[in-house]
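S1.2 Input.
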Amino acid sequence: MTLTYCSDLAAADWIVHSSLSWQQLVCFGPAGFDAYARLRLLPDPVRPGQSENDVEAEDWRTDQMPRLFELLAAGTTTQGHCYFCVWEGFGHAEPLTDNDAGYAGVDNSRGQIERADARPGLAPTSGAFPSVLPAPKVEVPHRAYWLFRGPLAEIGTWDTAEAWPGQRRLDATQPAFVWPADHAWCVAWDVDPHWAGIGGGTLLISQLIDDPLLDVVSADPSTEQPHYQ
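S1.3 Output.
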């Protein structure tokens, strides 16, 4: 099975219609879970005003993502029916062609388009690809996303998704939101923080925190989180 691009955005209504502040929403996902945590992709800053450039770490720990979703797959009854939001600011600024390769896996590249007019939450200049109709997007304050659905195991295969209009190459691009159809959990990975937020049941979050292959810590979404300048 492959992923399918969704022009019907109803599955994301619980995100779009959330009453949370946009910062909390895009960093932790919707409210209502029993517990929340942060998956740290860089160590937390050790002093106020610290820059990511000062971090003594080899690179972004995106190698944790496969393990994270392996554990999350066991925490849902609908791992074959999941949804994925991909931020519109990611991807290479050219349309897909028949010769383009498929997804190569999430890597250390953040995959952001290199356009002077690209800013978080804003679409690139209209008319960039006049032969391709705009694809409907999930929109929240300051952010907009393309929506895909399919098995959790197919995460990341955006470029080969059925019905994807091919406005961007999205290979090596991480999802901004991931959730199963039964809403057992939600992962939110915004473009600014050095961590991904996770909401789920208490037992599931405890399993993530206790896993030696993951750097996961408990979090209270209503409070300010560690951040780099």
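S1.4 Remarks. Confidence is low (pLDDT under 50) at residues 95-132.
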